[in-house]
Amino acid sequence: MSHGTAAPATGRAAGKGLPVPHGVPADGDHPGSAPPAVRVRGVRRSFEADIAPVRALRGLDFDVAAGEFVALMGPSGCGKSTLLNVIAGLDRPDEGSVEVAGERIDGVSVLDNLMLPGILGGLRRRAATSRARDLLGLLGIGEHGSRPPSALSGGQRQRLAIARALVNYPDLLLADEPTGALDSEGAQEVLALLRQLHAGGQTIVMVTHAPEVAAAAGRIVRMRDGRAEGRP
Questions:
Q1: Across-strand partners of 173?
Q2: What DSSP line would sit under 98-157, residue for residue?
């Protein structure tokens, strides 16, 4: 899970009863027999810096087959996080194309960005659109549905990341340092959202270093030397 984002878990035992996303090959089929779930071609992305531009992605080509489990490795600054942000539609490449589930996502709107996890999870387009609109309204960013994700503030982008984690109705929401990269105003927006989701019955496990952030939870479990202190 990348820093400051949220990701869902179904709460079922691994390998037992887990739903199979739409487009994933049935047991016994090779993942490569299905169209790519992700297709990246010729993507370039640079960022301005004091001395010279930082070329994070340099004409990158990348495919992920439906049902494949891919790990990206490399030294800090090699472009791993930039690639994930481009695939997620949270950042726009300077050049090249990105397709997810056969849909071009270059310059997609906030609404389109939120629909993609639903479509990948097996929802029909109409259902994915309805779910995305409902979540944007719930999270207080419904008026930004037609804007590109890159135009959102830090707090709004974190709300979008949480919304993506909620699209497929998870039993459990995992939040790893959800306020870590935000200013105080953005952090308060995200904490208010997590409180709202919890009040509605959502189970949440959050990791944080900040006592003031932990105070938003109903229970704080402290860890030391690989152990949880106090009651389980």
A1: 8, 204
A2: EEETTEE-TT--HHHHHHHHHHHTT--HHHHHHHHHHHHHHTT-GGGTTS-GGGS-HHHH
Q: How many domains does the chain have?
A: 1
Q: What DSSP line would sit under 133-148, residue for residue?
A: HHHHHHTT-GGGTTS-
Residue 129 lies in a domain: no
Asked, for residue 96, whether it belongs to a domain, the answer is yes
Would you call 169 exposed, middle or buried from its count of C-beta atoms within 10 A (0-12, 13-18, 19+)? exposed
DSSP class of residue 24 equals: P
The answer to the question of residue 201 being in a domain is no
pLDDT in tens, the chain (232 residues): 333 345 443 333 333 344 445 555 444 444 445 678 889 999 989 888 778 788 888 888 999 987 788 898 888 888 888 888 888 777 788 899 888 878 787 667 888 888 888 887 888 889 999 999 988 887 788 888 888 887 888 778 888 888 888 888 888 888 888 887 778 887 888 888 888 888 888 899 999 888 998 998 989 988 887 788 776 6
* Residue that is written with structure tokens 């820093």 in the block: 3
Domain contains 170: no
